[in-house]
Structure formats: structure tokens, C-alpha cells
Amino acid sequence: MKKFCSIVAALSMALAMALPLSAQIQTPAASPTVELKTKVGLTDVSLLYSRPSIKGRTVFAAAKTSVVPFGTMWRTGANSATKISFSDDVTIGGTAIKKGDYAIFSTPGATEWKVMFFNYETTNAGGYGDKTAVATWTLKPQKLAEKVETFTIDINDQTMDKASINIIWENTKVSMPLSVDVEGKVKASIDRVLAGPSANDYFTAGSYYHDTKKDLNKALEWVQKANAMSPQFWTLRKESLILADLGKKKEAIEVAMKSLAAAKEAKNQDYINMNEASIAEWKK
Q1: CA nearest 161: which of 104, 89, 100?
Q2: Residues with Cβ < 8 Å from 200, sequence gap 6 or more?
Q3: Torsion sign across C-alpha atoms 100, 106, 111, 112
Q4: Choosing a second label site near 80 at 20 to 30 A (CA), which of 15, 110, 255, 284?
Q5: How many angstroms separate the CA atoms of 115 and 165, rounded?
Q6: So what's the pLDDT on residue 116?
Q7: For residue 245, what are the contacts with CB-CB under 8 A and spacing of at least 6?
Q8: Predicted structure pTM score
Q9: Is the dihedral of CA 131, 132, 134, 136 positive or negative?
Q10: What is the per-residue pLDDT across 163-182, written as a single tens digit (0 to 9) for each?
Q11: Radius of gyration of the chain (CA)
């Protein structure tokens, strides 16, 4: 009995010691992380940053005791480096910016701000100080009538091809004009659609009709259209298989020979092997 009590006591102690390690106390974040996703024109724009609050402090001022002293390079948020992403090339404040991910840094001042974009490489905000900015803008801050308690970056004032990137906190707002190429993308889309289905569209439709045995004649029509536009060794292979399934072995061999030649030129051994095996079978 004494031995049993000792075992129970030991297990209870081990459990008590393990609880603090496995349990996690959850408290609200001092600077919550926000992810904003939107479209400007046809371009995806996203922001990932943390939002500190004033909490009775002075934010932008010359005093070194302020949250962001004038003349200090700031990560433009809290915690990790603030990230902005564009799915297409854009223009910001007259400067062309390639599609991709960027870290936003800024140096606030009483009469002007410098906002910098760096190629986004790490969440560590301290890793950008010695790097070269992709672009830098000098902006005039606006004085707000009402105090904004929680730091905010938003995409606002949107039109068909324009918007503004706004950095807002305390009584200060800094805006950067953003423009995107809508006309070029819309025209390309119109030209593509009005030109009719692509070779890949015909091939995909024909492959589906062949693979599901819906309509072999329709499948052949579509795949032949694809090959008339852009013959590839894999599309020619599909045409030969449809012809064979339709009982047209002679035509199947002729197309398979074309696929074989193209596969050899591309050095694709899998299609070389498949075509040679099919040609041998269809010749029997």
C-alpha cells in the first residue's frame, strides 16, 4: 500500500509540473496583426502589418521620448516588418514598381515624411536598415482634426484604375497615389476572348470528351483544331489515340509518327516509348 501511495504521489507531482509547460495563457495582443486584401482595377493589393495604439503617449514629435521621434527610420507599424504586395506592376507617386512583395519603412518629420519600399525578404524589421530601398518618396503630412487612436494603413479613394495608400496615426495622415494599368489588361482580355478559343482550350475540351468517352468524333474535331493551331507531341499523341479508338488505325499511325518525331526532338523519352509501343500495336 505504501508503495502504491508513493507511485500515485510521484505521478501527481509529474502532472503538476507538466501543466505549466503545456498550458498556454492567452491575452490580447498589444498590437494586433491585420491583413487587408483588395483589388485596385484588376490588380490584387494586400497589406500585412501590426497596429499599435497611442495609449496616452505622444507618437510623432521631435522628443526622443515619443513613440516615433522625427528623423527616425520606422517600420511603419509594430512587431514585424510591414508588408505590401502587388499582383501586377503598378505606379506609386509617379514611380514604377514591379509586381511583388515589399517592406514599407518611413522616416517621419514635422513638415515631410520619407516613405521607402524595400524588397521584402524577412519579417525582421531590423534586417532592412543597411539595404538599398527600391523606391523612396518625400511626402507632405496632413494634419487631422480628430485623433486616430490605432495605427492604420488603408487603400482608399478607389476609382477604376487609381487609389491612395494612406498611413494614418494620431493627428497625422500621409497619402501616396497608386495607379494601375487597367486599359492594357482589359484590351488584352477582350482581344483574347474575341479571338476565340486557344489551342489549349480545344485540347482540354477534346481530352475531356475522349477521356470520359462522351463523343469521340467531337473530341477528334477539337483536338485536330488544337493541332492545326499549335501541334505539340502530347496533343498529337491525344489525336492518335482518338483516331485509334475510332478504328482509324492508319490515320492513327500517321499522327503517332508526327508525335514520335516531336517527342524525339524534345528528348521526352516517355512519349517516345508510348508512341513506339502504340505504332507497333496498331500495325498488327
Answers
A1: 89
A2: 226
A3: negative
A4: 110
A5: 11
A6: 97
A7: 210, 216
A8: 0.69
A9: positive
A10: 999 999 999 999 999 999 99
A11: 32
Check whether 31 has a pLDDT greater than 80: yes
Rounded Cα–Cα distance for residues 106 and 218 (Å): 61
Residue 152 grid cell: 492604420
DSSP notation for 36-96: EEEEETTEEEEEEEE--B-TT---EESSTTSSEETT--B-SSSSSPEEEEESS-EEETTEE
Asked if 121 contacts 75 with a C-beta cutoff of 8 angstroms, the reply is no
Question: Among residues 47, 116, 123, 36, which one has the least CA distance to residue 79?
Answer: 123
Domain ranges of the chain: 33-180, 197-282
CB atoms within 10 A of CB 119: 14
CATH superfamily placement of domain 197-282: Tetratricopeptide repeat domain (1.25.40.10)
Spatial separation of the C-alpha atoms in residues 82 and 102, rounded to whole Å: 8
- How far is residue 108's CA from residue 253's CA, in Å, rounded to a whole number? 73
